[in-house]
Amino acid sequence: MYKDISVQVVSFVYVFILSSVYFLKRKYNFLESKVYKGLLVSTMISLILDIFSMYVVNYNMSNLVIIEFVSKLYFISLFVWLSLFIFYVLLNKANVKYDNFAIMLKKSILCKMWFVISIILMILLLFSNIGYMASNEVYYGNGVFIVYGLAIVGSLLLLILLLFNNRKIANYKNWSILISIVILCMSFFIQMRFDGIFILGSGISLITIFLYFTVENPDIKYIEELNALKDAAEEANRAKTNFLASMSHEIRTPMNAIIGLSQSILSNDVPKHIEEDIKNINKAGDTLLEIVNNILDITKIEEGKTKINNKPYNLADVVAEINNIINVSLGEKPIKYTVSTIGNIPSVLMGDEVKIYQILMNLLSNSVKYTEKGNIKLEIESRIFGNKANLTFKVIDTGMGIKKSDQDKIFVKFERLDQEQKNIQGTGLGLSITKKLVDMIGGKISFESIYQKGTTFVVELEQEIVDKSKIVGLDSHKVKKKTVEEHFDGSNYEILLVDDNLLNLKVAEKLLKPYNFKITSIKSGLECLNYTKNKKYDLILLDHMMPEMDGIQTLYNLKKRANGFNTPVVVLTANAIEGSKERYLREGFCAYLSKPINQVELDEILRKWLGIESE
Fold first, then answer.
1. What is the longest distance spanned by two Cα atoms in the chain?
2. Could you tell me if 603 and 267 are in contact, meaning their C-beta atoms sit under 8 angstroms apart?
3. Where a domain ends, among 152, 184, 216?
4. DSSP letter assigned to residue 477
5. Residues 370/456, Cβ–Cβ less than 8 Å
């Protein structure tokens, strides 16, 4: 007898241990998980009744009432397990995760139908006879056929349902459930074919265990949950990027008018009192543009879209350009700004010049903002080790300093310290961007500050030496600020301006006016195709974002012309996110000019593509 029930006993022990582990792990409140708990419990009950019925059959052969009672209980437990299994498969097939039974009954027609069918079959089973024939070692009665019929017909229907709807559940779930259904069919087929082999209890145990390790393990569900959160985060990140790109474009379009028109006015002779107001408007426009750029910078860095671009550079030129800007930013403030050096600073280094410029510019701009009088000092120290230079940049000021309670928030984005200082503008992004840039280029940043006395920021980084010759007079080194002091005569050139925004056309016309070009302004890509059909222009400035036919489509149609097309086309766009320039050049534009239009960049492009020698 022990030999007859050994498989059932082992199955029960294994399912019991599995159930203990399952119930101790993290709980999920989805209805399918609750149904699986029911499967575990009904599996243990079926195994107990299977073992008990075999014991009764062996030791109570004369008591037919007890044998029939235990046999009926065993087949009812099998029916319950089958009902729960079919219910479980239907829930996994559903597109929606149900939290409770009542909601499922309202929304799922299949589950509702199965619930009604299972109740009817259960009533029939309760009033059907079930017994055990000892001579042939076989269960008999109408109830037995109800259970067997449910198993076979239910399995076939589930197989058909899964095969025709396999896209509605995850691929691994689909295969796990298909294998479980096959095991179920085989178990009942073997039991019907070989009456003396009692395999059903072990068969349903195997399915329950298999479902645990492939579908219902809380660890697997936790990974699913993490993947879902990851997908949601990536989708949110994409939405954020698209939003920022869109907002950057929308903000840059009116900024083009503010900055462009104010620059155009300042290039002419205007009364002194009006000139001051226009300068303030232009400066406010630059401040707003800096805020937009900072938001884009922090987004690009966090998304990993900012790349290191190492190339030879002259540190003296970087510092000189920063000095020009800082001296202008100080204005009338009673502040002495100085630059000092310690050690031999190599004239040419290998590194990302743009990021080093941005780091120093952010730190010094921050000092200018928070210092009303006293001193601001940029100190640069160099220590040479072989072909490497260890550079230490110190930005020292006598500004308001940082409270100890605020020092742990100094590199947190959007944190503005000392909010009572209403006259200080900014988004609280500068130092956060600086910290991320320093980390990107493998450096270190630290600071010391005494509130109301001043702050010292220290940046340490290592650069490869290209030219060891020492920089002399770094503090007095000058670079000529790029400006358009004299416009060339463009009266022999014809320029085509294409932009759907009338204000942008007006800005571009104003900036081009000093060159005396013959300018034609139009508002669409289709007009561009018509105007260039029978007329040759020397240069086309083409906007990208236009209705009906955008700039890229317009350029593509121009280049498709049978007689060829060789007019240089410059894209004029408010799209200024990372990689925009490279994208437009790949599309076939000869140059990229972002809005707001920079006069120096415009002049350089005009000279290059019209073949004018630079002054």
1. 122
2. no
3. 216
4. -
5. no
Whether residue 393 contacts residue 458, with contact meaning beta carbons closer than 8 Å, is answered with yes
Rounded CA-CA distance 280/466 in Å is 42
Instruction: State both tokens at 198.
Output: 């009692």
Cα 298 to Cα 318: distance, rounded to the nearest angstrom: 22
For residue 345, report the phi and psi dihedrals to the nearest 5 degrees.
-100, 115
SS3 367: helix
Domain extent at residue 32: 2-216
**d(Cα 45, Cα 573) in Å, to the nearest integer?**
72
Half-sphere exposure of 453 (CA within 13 A, CB side): 6
pLDDT for position 423: 46
In a domain? residue 385 = yes
Q: Cα(73)–Cα(51) distance, rounded to whole angstroms?
A: 12
Percentage with pLDDT > 90 across the chain? 18
Considering only residues 421 and 198, tell me which one the structure prediction assigns the higher pLDDT: 198
Pairing between β-strand 539-543 and β-strand 494-498 as defined by DSSP bridges: parallel
Q: What token pair was written down for 103?
A: 């909601």
Classify strands 374-385 and 591-594 as parallel, antiparallel or unpaired: unpaired
Q: Is 483 part of any domain?
A: no
Instruction: Indicate the pTM of the whole model.
Output: 0.52
pLDDT at residue 153 in the model: 87
Q: Report the b/e string of 16-37 with b at 16+ CB within 10 A.
A: eebbeebeeeeebeebbbbbbe
The pLDDT tens digits for 83-130 are 999 888 888 777 667 777 777 777 778 778 888 888 898 888 888 888
Same domain, 258 and 404: no
Q: Are 570 and 528 in contact (CB under 8 A)?
A: no
Q: Which residues pair with 492 in a beta bridge?
A: none
Rounded Cα distance, 455 and 451, in Å: 8
Does 338 share its domain with 445?
yes
Q: Are residues 177 and 266 in the same domain?
A: no
| Residues comprising the chain, all counted | 615
Q: Tokens in use for 464?
A: 């490869």
State which of 476, 505, 523 marks the end of a domain.
476
